[in-house]
Amino acid sequence: DVKVTQSSRYLVKRTGEKVFLECVQDMDHENMFWYRQDPGLGLRLIYFSYDVKMKEKGDIPEGYSVSREKKERFSLILESASTNQTSMYLCASSLLATKNIQYFGAGTRLSVL
Amino acid sequence: AQKVTQAQTEISVVEKEDVTLDCVYETRDTTYYLFWYKQPPSGELVFLIRRNSFDEQNEISGRYSWNFQKSTSSFNFTITASQVVDSAVYFCALSEGAGDYKLSFGAGTTVTVRA
After folding, report:
1. Which chain B residue's Cα is nearest to A58?
2. By the 8 A CB rule, do B44 and A107 touch?
3. Chain A: residue nearest B35 by CA?
4. End-to-end CA distance of chain A, in Å?
């Protein structure tokens, strides 16, 4: 079974803090994704990566950056957290051969106070 | 513009009732993929089905069935004889083009099955 692990289930941060959300997958998937989930809006793509050190902007990249130094790990960075970034963050990965079937982690619920 | 519309925000049924979730999509591509995911209270989205645009056959998997109609741009999902374990948020998603691996999700439908 594919395992996508997000480092924290719940996180509380202060406005202005730098926040790191970590995601690790154990199936050697080439593609990795970060989404945020908000009520009534579904999942919106923040960034994705199709290879180590490669990244592409999704639909809502403003206020976020990402890092992929190793194939199995994809980090989402909030350079200066703001209250409007309070949300559920979901990481996903997919295999190039079956590229659009994505496997998800359990999510990190981030509260920015 | 919203590419995937799930008009039903919440559905509440009694156990053993059937429930149908609507999904309407919008794309100009002739090649595309449609998905359904389930998000139980634990939070992790679980892949249920992928259907490509060239395969309009309906599919049944146990108590789950899917009805794909290109004429109405719909990909509806029915749970037959619902159970409490079916309580979850269900998302419909679209991937456009043969080589694209991004998914556009609908807003989700929350299904509550009461015992």
Report:
1. B102
2. yes
3. A101
4. 37
Residue of A3, A37, A43 to mutate for B, most B C-beta atoms under 10 A = A43
SS3 A102: coil
Return the minimum-mean-pLDDT range out of A30-34, B52-56, B82-86.
B52-56
Query: Which residue in A58, A99, A107 is closest to B43 by CB distance?
Result: A107
DSSP class of A73:
E
pLDDT value at position B56? 83
Q: Would you list the DSSP string of A17-63?
A: --EEEEEEESS--SEEEEEEEETTTEEEEEEEESSTT--EE-S--TT
Residues of A in contact with B50 (CB under 8 A): 100-101
**Do residues B74 and B34 touch, judged by C-beta distance below 8 A?**
no
Instruction: Kindly tell me if the per-residue pLDDT of B99 is higher than 70.
Output: no
Integer angstrom CA distances of residue B51 from A9, A64, A82, B12, B95: 31, 32, 39, 27, 10
Query: Is the model's pLDDT at B109 over the cut of 70?
Result: yes
pLDDT category, B58, cuts 50, 70, 90?
A: confident
Closest of A80, A75, A38, A88 to residue A62, by C-alpha: A80
For A106, what's the count of Cα atoms within 13 Å in the CB-facing half-sphere?
Answer: 9
pLDDT band at B59 (very low <50, low <70, confident <90, very high): confident
- Cα A75 to the chain's mean position, in Å? 7
Res A66: pLDDT? 97
